[in-house]
Sequence to fold (386 residues):
Amino acid sequence: MNKDKIWLSSPHMGGNEQKFVNEAFEENWVAPLGPNVNGFEEDIKNYLFNDSSKEGAVAALSSGTAALHLALIMLGVKAGDEVLCQSMTFAASANPIAYLGATPVFIDSEEETLNLCPNQLRIAIEDRISKGKKPKAIIAVHLYGMPYQVDKINEIAREFEIPVIEDAAEALGSTYKGEKCGTFADYAILSFNGNKIITTSGGGALVTKSQADKEKAVFLATQARDAAPHYQHSEIGYNYRLSNISAGIGRGQMEALDKRVDARRQMHDFYVDLFSDIEGVEVFNAPNKDYFANHWLSVVTLDEEKTGGINRENLRLHLEKLNIESRPLWKPMHMQPVFENAPFYGTGVAEQLFENGLCLPSGSNLTKEEQTRIKTGILSCFNKQK
Ligand SMILES: *Cc1c(COP(=O)(O)O)cnc(C)c1O
Fold:
């Protein structure tokens, strides 16, 4: 990796990752199962559920995308079904719907959390039902680590008896009303890709409500082998288990998670301070005390009329010249060529956010020097010194 480049979010090792990886080598557990896989699952489960009255289980998988795919399968989603999905998100939230031959129905965001809009969700459900098809599941995302409106979404899901899949890929360490993201829905998914708050180099997890559901997920993730001495299968299986080497990295990363959340939140404070006297730029914040974001990425929105003509693309290109990475918010799925035929319910909120929003470098490992470079770079874009 280019040392001079300041990345949006880069891997940050804690220290003990190699110890766990070495153990795997010493014991020859170089396979998609082993003590690190079990230990990593236990670590995540303890982290999510220890301070909670809720119960759950965790299956470590090869990616967050695989976890979403399995969650949809376990909810019985089949070809021709419809699945409701937050439009403003990473494509991985929606692609597994298409893997199953089902149709994604995209829903707009609201402005408080940038996530699934409860009003549009209700409108969509009622309309799909009136057209003769009740949606099979709702995929809600905690974008950039900001919890979605959990109570409202759950209330609607209960009213219409539609299960929820919680995409917590970006939200490990975030909480809503004191409960951890990843514990609010029928299934939740986590991601440990290289740019997430913790990484296993590549990996994910499915969080289930019961041990039995976890076992079913592991069964499907390991080629759906029936109990027999030979290889026998009565169901289609997948090769989705996490490697014991990757899980070793994950064990080391879990030890550092709390520190990573602190550091990301400090980066967010850094931007709040930096933009406090720049007119027309808003740093995206939690709507109230119920929401505790890990601030995986810090997000700003620019109002060109108030910044004196500087829009998000001006700022992005200015930073790019300084070798500082920034990126527009996720382009909504209903605007993507690949999903152009999918139904969408909304009023243009996600489109506006995509137009005006920018993610800024948010890594937990940004040095003081790098922070100074970011600060100077941003201020020079707005012709200010500090
Ligand atoms: C990263 C991410 C995923 C997918 O996780 P992978 O481990 O990369 O497959 C899904 N949803 C969201 C919102 C993500 O950011």
Q: What stands out?
A: The mean pLDDT is 96. Residues 116 and 335 are 16 Å apart (CA to CA).
